[in-house]
Structure formats: structure tokens, C-alpha cells
Amino acid sequence: MSHFSTLPAATEYAPFYHTYVRLIPGDPLAALRAQPQELRCLLAGLTEKQALLRYAPGKWSIKESLVHMLDTERIFAYRALRIARADTTPLPSFDQDDYVPASGADARPLADILREYDTVRAASLSLLESFTAEMVARQGTASGQPVSVRAMAYILAGHEAHHLHILQERYLPQLAG
Predict the structure, then answer these.
(1) Whole-model pTM above 0.90?
(2) At a CB cut-off of 8 Å and minimum separation 6, what does 169 contact?
(3) pLDDT given for residue 177 in this prediction
(4) Which residues of 92-120 are buried (b: 16+ CB within 10 A; e: fewer)?
(5) Which domains does the chain have, with CATH numbers?
(6) What is the pLDDT along the chain (177 residues), one digit of tens a residue?
(7) What is the SS3 assignment for 153?
(8) Which of 4, 128, 6 is nearest to 76 (CA)?
(9) Which member of 36, 42, 96, 128 has the greatest number of CB atoms within 10 A?
(10) Nearest-CA neighbor of 158 among 22, 67, 12, 11?
(11) Between β-strands 145-148 and 139-142, what pairing exists: parallel, antiparallel or unpaired?
């Protein structure tokens, strides 16, 4: 049984993150293991041109959404690492709206982004699986709010679940038409 199998208490994360935590009713590591297959199924057969689709003006392309997921996963894993190692330094926030345009995602081949996705996910799982129960229970501060390592795992998995849902509900229907 995973050290992460107990849902975090509401005091273990900022209220904003409840949107993500609620999407993961079970072990977040199991969700993180399953999500790559779900992503591959959603994107099966997607062309480079289709991967540039924006479901509405001003919204990110599919490629930009994927790179946003990668950037966010790296940041959340880093936060979990720092807190798990008993680092009490408050961790800064990041502005996704600054990161996405600076990522150059649309100029990259989709296959390259998906290879990076596999690498980042493997690293995140390896890190999270290495944590002891004591590390998982540790709390720190990120973006000016309290957060536990346990909550970070749920937030990480829930963030991706959120974006997979957006891909399925907002992007893919436009490609089918």
C-alpha cells in the first residue's frame, strides 16, 4: 500500500487546489501510472497541424497544454522534494501564463513533447515512490500557502486529470467535426 493512499486533509493544501484533489479519489500514484496511457489514447493519430488547435481564441494549443502539464509536473515534484527533505524555505509561485508563451511548444514536434512527457512522468513516479511515510506527512509552504507532500502528489495527479478532461471535452470534439 502506498504512503499516499490517504486523502490529504483540507488543511494540507490551499483551497484553490481542491479542484485537483477531488479528481483523485484513490491512490495518486496509481493515477499517475495510468495517465500516460489515457493521454496516448486521447492523442492517438493526432497530426502536427491538429496539435496546434486552440479550442477558442486566446486559449493554448494542444502542444502548449502538454508542455504546461510538463512544466507544472516538474514544479510540483520539486516542491514535493524540497518539503520531503524537511526544507522549510517558503517556495515561490509561478505564473503559467508567462511560462507557456516562453516554452516554444508549438515549434516542437509532438513526438518530442511526448518523449519528454514519458521522461518527466518516470522521474516524478520514481521520486514519489522513494518517500517514506514520514516524508509524505511533512508540510511546507508553496505560493504562500501550507502544503504537504501527500497533497502535492494528489495535486500533481489531479492537475493532469483536469487537463486530460479539457482535452477530451474542448479540443477533441473540434477535431472530430
Answers:
(1) yes
(2) none
(3) 66
(4) eeeeeeebbeebebbebebeebbeebeeb
(5) 10-176 (1.20.120.450)
(6) 689 989 999 999 999 999 999 999 999 999 999 999 999 999 999 999 999 999 999 999 999 999 999 999 999 999 999 999 999 999 999 999 999 999 999 999 999 999 999 999 999 999 999 999 999 999 999 999 999 999 999 999 999 999 999 999 999 999 986
(7) helix
(8) 128
(9) 128
(10) 22
(11) antiparallel
Q: Which three cell numbers stand for residue 156?
A: 500533481
Structure-derived torsion over alpha carbons of residues 71, 28, 165, 48, reported in degrees to the nearest 10: 40
pLDDT of residue 2: 80
Instruction: Read off the C-alpha cell for 134.
Output: 514520514
Q: What amino acid occupies position 60? A: W
Nearest to 176 by CA among 85, 20, 44, 18: 44
Residue type present at position 63: K
**Which amino acid does the sequence have at 161?**
A
